[in-house]
């Protein structure tokens, strides 16, 4: 059986990046030539293959058949299971616990998150700017100047907020909107990426492990929206010296980018995956070939590493 040389030895022909060169890049201010961070520019509205896709006609047909199955609507159930009053130095508010469960089968990855009334209010204002006609029949729980902390008011509002989320989710364009998805995932993702920038990989990984399943259910219509979070998990696993788990999550990220060779994460992800495959004694040659093809299609003076991309996410 052929032996595998260590990275950096004469047997490794791939390009050396900061991701695996023994140095850990520090989070820095966004560079002028760095693509705008955030999930909004990952895919077009339809999530279709890029125009420079190298797939054959048969492969494209198979891709669309697979995507048609993947886009089957995932039905989610929203519950407001509890509420607690939180007091701070200058404020007092009610924090509502939201549980999100996938219906139709046992869901071992139910999501549990907390939001306050003002978070719901912000969501409503954002949705009115884009979907005023679509949500005109959706009743938003009114704000009360007094009595917000009584048991009766809290119970009433729990039911009203549950109904509000359910009605919003029933509207296709709303449940697929960035506003709705961000309401349910952005605070946790922002915290996770902040931990990643601070080098707190275990904490970041713990948060990502909890939020990614929900994000995956919400973005089934556009899998590439999941890629930054998956790549963040890869970076965490790798820097925690858990390469097998890093490689597994990287494979999921590559599946999300099928037929999307022009995606800004595609080349850095292939580079990281080729190095992990080499380290694990797996087939890195095919990954290296795809990487070289990608670099030929979209040459750059200096490519960004996967870590350099992920640390720029959710800065604001």
From TrEMBL:
<dbReference type="InterPro" id="IPR036871">
    <property type="entry name" value="PX_dom_sf"/>
</dbReference>
<dbReference type="InterPro" id="IPR011990">
    <property type="entry name" value="TPR-like_helical_dom_sf"/>
</dbReference>
<keyword id="KW-0813">Transport</keyword>
<keyword id="KW-0653">Protein transport</keyword>
<comment type="similarity">
    <text>Belongs to the sorting nexin family.</text>
</comment>
<feature type="compositionally biased region" description="Polar residues">
    <location>
        <begin position="47"/>
        <end position="58"/>
    </location>
</feature>
<feature type="domain" description="PX">
    <location>
        <begin position="74"/>
        <end position="191"/>
    </location>
</feature>
<keyword id="KW-0967">Endosome</keyword>
<dbReference type="InterPro" id="IPR039937">
    <property type="entry name" value="SNX20/SNX21"/>
</dbReference>
<dbReference type="Pfam" id="PF00787">
    <property type="entry name" value="PX"/>
</dbReference>
<protein>
    <submittedName>
        <fullName>Sorting nexin-20 isoform X2</fullName>
    </submittedName>
</protein>
<keyword id="KW-0446">Lipid-binding</keyword>
<dbReference type="InterPro" id="IPR001683">
    <property type="entry name" value="PX_dom"/>
</dbReference>
<feature type="region of interest" description="Disordered">
    <location>
        <begin position="1"/>
        <end position="58"/>
    </location>
</feature>
<keyword id="KW-0472">Membrane</keyword>
